[in-house]
Amino acid sequence: MGGPPPVVGIIGPGRAGVGLALALAHADYRVLLHGRRKRSVPKPLTLDVGSAGEPPCWMPEAGVVILAVPDDAIRPLAEMLAGAVTASHVILHLSGVQGQEALGPLVSSGAALGSLHPLQTIADPEQAPVRLRGAWAAVEGMPAAVAAAERLASAVGMRPFRVATKAKAVYHAGAVFASNYFVVVEAVAQRLLRHAGLSDRDAWAALRPLVEGTFANLMAREPAAALTGPVERGDATTIQRHVESLTRDDAQLYRSLGRAALELAQKGGMDRATAARVAEALATDLPPVLPVAPKT
Ligand SMILES: NC(=O)c1ccc[n+]([C@@H]2O[C@H](COP(=O)([O-])OP(=O)(O)OC[C@H]3O[C@@H](n4cnc5c(N)ncnc54)[C@H](OP(=O)(O)O)[C@@H]3O)[C@@H](O)[C@H]2O)c1
């Protein structure tokens, strides 16, 4: 998609919508932002609030329209927009897991349909212009939609890459592990230190330097080379003691992650005998679930 930059309309003034709008505005794009209720948006953005169930009044002006709404709201929003979308539009959404099929209600319009998923977490939209720079972005969809998505991504400093429609779910599951479950694993660690007698606050303060060290290792090398710890060392007895010290749920999580760590250690050259000892320790029988006593 060559020529002058298209006018970009964004529906959904949430974290991703406002963040991307701001980044595009900083890249000298004209951005039109639409929401279903009044709220403040950072300068130079302005928010247009329309009547419920009506497409934004700027639809004929926009070359690219981005649906920046929660994943489950994409299809209903596409249905609502159907009468206002024409063959000259490019329609994109930002979901990591859904593909162009979420825009199914717009197929008969002849518009180019696709998705643009920034592989970045946007909690504060005002930080987005900086956060998006250097982030990768998965693009998918019809050829004209892919070209438009790649152009927008590049304009805000992202690195676009293509993902097949049917591969989006597994791609996005990977993103969830890298970001969301990374946070969850830290929360589990904090809770276990609390069981060891620390306050929540001290537990996180104590873990922070460890997390920072791990993060620095990960920034310097790939995960397989950054792995340390009992699985990588082959310390089977340590692993067994860990499993025995945990509640059933935590032990299950520990064992699943331990098996993934073992796979990594084996790729790194762990010998078969050590791997077998570690696998056996990870398979340690979990404590039985205590039956709930019947109420008398
Ligand atoms: N945030 C991220 O880190 C991130 C990163 C990459 C991709 N994404 C993708 O970006 C999309 C939006 O995520 P988000 O994090 O920005 O969500 P969000 O902060 O919750 O914002 C969602 C926005 O959509 C609006 N909305 C909700 N339901 C709607 C509906 N039925 N019709 C019209 N508007 C509706 C909300 O408006 P109200 O305020 O009126 O409810 C809000 O402005 C998702 O597809 C997500 O997967 C997000």
Give the overall shape: elongated
Uncertain segments are: none
Question: What is the structural class?
Answer: alpha/beta
Report the strand count.
8
Topology record:
Elements: E1 8-11, H1 15-26, E2 31-35, E3 47-49, E4 64-67, H2 71-81, E5 90-93, E6 112-118, H3 128-132, E7 136-141, H4 143-155, E8 159-162, H5 168-178, H6 180-195, H7 200-220, H8 223-226, H9 230-233, H10 236-245, H11 248-267, H12 272-282
Parallel strand pairs: 1-2, 1-4, 2-3, 4-5, 5-6, 7-8
Antiparallel strand pairs: 6-7
Helix pairs in contact: 6-7, 10-11, 10-12, 11-12
The chain binds NADP nicotinamide-adenine-dinucleotide phosphate.
Residues 12-17, 35-37, 68-71, 73, 76-77, 94-96, 117-118, 121-122 line the site of NADP nicotinamide-adenine-dinucleotide phosphate (NAP).
Structure explained in plain terms:
- With 296 residues, this protein is α/β, with parallel strands linked by helices.
- It folds into two domains: 8-165, Rossmann fold, CATH 3.40.50; 178-282, N-(1-d-carboxylethyl)-l-norvaline Dehydrogenase, domain 2 (Orthogonal Bundle).
- Helix content is 47%, strand content 12%.
- It contains twelve helices and eight strands.
- It has helices at 15-26, 71-81, 128-132, 143-155, 168-178, 180-195, 200-220, 223-226, 230-233, 236-245, 248-267, 272-282; strands at 8-11, 31-35, 47-49, 64-67, 90-93, 112-118, 136-141, 159-162.
- Strands 3-2-1-4-5-6-7-8 form an eight-stranded mixed sheet, sandwiched between helices.
- Strand 7, helix 4 and strand 8 form a beta-alpha-beta unit.
- Helix 6 packs across helix 7 (200-220).
- The longest helix has 21 residues, at 200-220.
- It is elongated, with a radius of gyration of 24 Å.
- The site of NADP nicotinamide-adenine-dinucleotide phosphate has 23 residues, from helix 1, helix 2 and strand 6.
